Structures
1.
Amino acid sequence: DATPDCQQAVVNFLADPNGSVGNKDEKTTQVFTLKKGADGKYSDSVTPANVTPIPKENFAFDIWTKDNGETGVNPFVAQTLNGGDKVTYTAHFAADKIGPENKPDGIPDKYQAVVTYKVVGGTWKDGKTDAQVQVFTLKTKNEKTGVWEDANPVLGNTIPTGMISSYSRTASQSWDKDITKDTKVTESVTYTYTFTKKSSGGGGGSSVS
């Protein structure tokens, strides 16, 4: 345009190789004409219009970074720019292959953990033996700041109960690790509930509530 660069600031929006930015009608380059101050310099508080991050398949949006920064930011808040400024915000994406029903869920996998429950020497209360898998989100994004923050999840009511022994007599039955509903989830882990067979004797199977 005809406005001198010293009176304007430019904000660009880019993406890393795992996605793109900008739906229809969203501007990935935004030019702001600034106000002249008493000192003769141009400066103003501006708020960039929203630009949508678009991840490729099996990826999810992670964070925006500013220029050469590495921490998450929110580009769409008021910010003071000076004449001649050129600011670049880059959308970063991360792998997203896990989630409920073993499908991507829009949350980067690096912020999630998979807890797997297994049973040995018996069945779950429904008679099945397949591993039970739960996905926990370790961090949630603060939309105001653009930063992922600790969610501090616990096992809660995901711990299976009512397991049934396959043996006529059971010597012992327990989880391989001490867990309760308040056990914190910090990483992917497997918990195994094991029934051991008693050496002799009759009787029916046993279960745990």
2.
Amino acid sequence: LESKIMVASTKKMNCHNTIWVLRDEYEKLDASLKRIADVRPYDPNPDLVVPWATTPKWNIEPEGDVLIGTDADVMVWNQSLATQVAAECFMKKKLYGTIGYSAPFPESEWKALFEKYGMKDDFDYRYTNTRQKTPFYINMGVVMMPKEMLCEFRECYNKWVVEVNKWHPKNYFMCQIANAMAINELKLPVADMPRTFNYTEIDNPGTPE
């Protein structure tokens, strides 16, 4: 799900949603749902083990100043808080995300990746569960970025999906790893959001949605 949100201190939040669905599933959807929501089909890359790594996750132009990309099952449940953080994202021109729950692979693999591509391995953050050190590795559940950051990020991200697939072809989290590598390469200004944006502590303590 991609949510494009226009944020301004004196204006009401204007939200438009696009839902991406695998083409096979799209054909089964009731026509009434397609009319209610902006539902679009996509074809997975057959060369990738993780089909959604090349979904049109970032391939939409935001109608507002900030793009909020979320998983369909997460949805930003606190709209007041979401608006506040999105406004901060817009004003500070930073990419916001919730740090991953745990490591996709050992720290040595991160270091090997950064070394292979001649990049600096900054481990300034900690996984939200294991508390081990990590680079800015964010969960794809909720990501916010200013509109002007999107094009450069999207191009770099798509390149890294291909590279990560060569390095770790069966890694379930390849899209999140590609995010981390793109953010590192572009040296984007970032900020981590509270884990409550992507976790429901009350219903499922400590369990990802």
3.
Amino acid sequence: TPILEKGDNEFIMGVEISKKSSLKRTLTAYSVDNYLTVVAKKRTLQTTIYGVAGALIFFNFCMFLLYRKSYLVYYIIYSSATLFILMVGSWHIPLYDVRLWNFALFLSSTASVMLSVTGLQIRDVMPKVASFLSGSCIALTLIYLAVAVLPLPSELLYFSGLTICAIAVLAALIRMMQGYVPAFFFALGWSILIAGFALNYLSSFTDE
């Protein structure tokens, strides 16, 4: 929560907390005018991103009601879980229990892989790859349960999910080289997502 301090030079301190093994706090001082400008720009961008994501989720839900395609269900689950991760990671909604974070990671990873299997028709063209990806989802489920029950770090689930998603990206690239046009958009979206998560995680090790 911003803290307003009044004096000869009125200013506002904004506090941001980054997720790490231990919490890290970054303090930034703004003049009143600069603070209001920064907040307005951030809120406009955030509202746009969340609004577009919500609209896409609702659109695909309507498409599922019309066509009853399984890949639309996977897309809805994947997008909803990823949106939750983004909002928690940006501290726009509170995380009351780390188990919710782990569950969202699990849903996002497994749904994205199953989306590639069904949406890219990998099961028909590359049955061995499809079987491997399906088996990876089972393995990720076991890892999720192990992290939930045993004193294991959440990073195990995090990196396992990224690895499986990276394999799904590779499968999309293969389908793209085979001439399947939708695979290009799958590979592009997956690559941006993985790069964003990786940079977000690595940034927690840097001191500002």
